[in-house]
Design goal:
This protein is mostly helical and 194 residues long. It contains twelve helices and no strands. The longest helix has 20 residues. The relative contact order is 0.18. The chain starts with a helix and ends in a 6-residue tail after the last helix. It is globular. The chain is 69% helix and 0% strand.
Length: 194
């Protein structure tokens, strides 16, 4: 899953949010430098990713992007799922995405000095462009896809994943609707005090 889903699946707990969002940039024993609940958030992130990667619905849906982007199909699907999460009135936090996003940014800022410099550099853009509350907009998805494409070392020049996203929009939305309730049920079994 991508940033919005990882933040959303953090029980509203600041330290879990931080761990869940920073996890991809933490390797090996680096995790030991963080407070226990941030470590638990990192572990949760990894559990979410493992569950997501093994889910039959995800395996099927990522094929929408495979012909364009090859092995990067998971990354583009993750961003797509964040879009549909952001559009879900049923899943939207009570305070709304904008306020929720602000709380997430504040949580990250509280621990900013302990976070990897690479994450902090990225976080400047995340906050200034308000990624978390803007995933519901198509322009944000297109921009996210462009950034993913720039970072992908082996992506074909002719790749156009945003076209795939638009062409298969309803299929992707239905896929999200089938998958995300399963993921939420899985995460509910992960107690915040672990």
């Amino acid at each position: 899953m991508n940033f919005l889903a990882h933040a959303y699946l953090s029980f509203g707990d600041d330290e879990f949010i931080v761990g869940n969002l920073v996890a991809d940039m933490i390797r090996g024993k680096q995790m030991d430098a963080f407070p226990e609940r941030i470590q638990a958030g990192i572990r949760l992130h990894r559990q979410i990713d493992a569950y997501t990667d093994s889910h039959p619905e995800v395996k099927r849906a990522k094929q929408i992007f495979t012909s364009s982007v090859g092995r990067y199909d998971n990354s583009f699907l993750d961003v797509s799922y964040d879009h549909f999460l952001a559009l879900s009135a049923e899943l939207e936090p009570q305070e709304g995405w904008e306020v929720y996003a602000g709380k997430c940014y504040q949580a990250i800022e509280r621990y900013g000095e302990t976070l990897p410099p690479k994450f902090c550099s990225m976080f400047m853009y995340m906050k200034s462009e308000d990624w978390l509350s803007n995933y519901g907009h198509l322009w944000m998805i297109e921009r996210s896809f462009e950034r993913l494409a720039r970072r992908a070392k082996y992506l074909p020049d002719a790749a156009n994943p945003f076209n795939d996203f638009q062409t298969h929009y309803e299929e992707l939305e239905e896929s999200f609707s089938r998958f995300f309730p399963d993921l939420m049920s899985f995460v509910k079994g992960y107690a915040p005090n672990t």
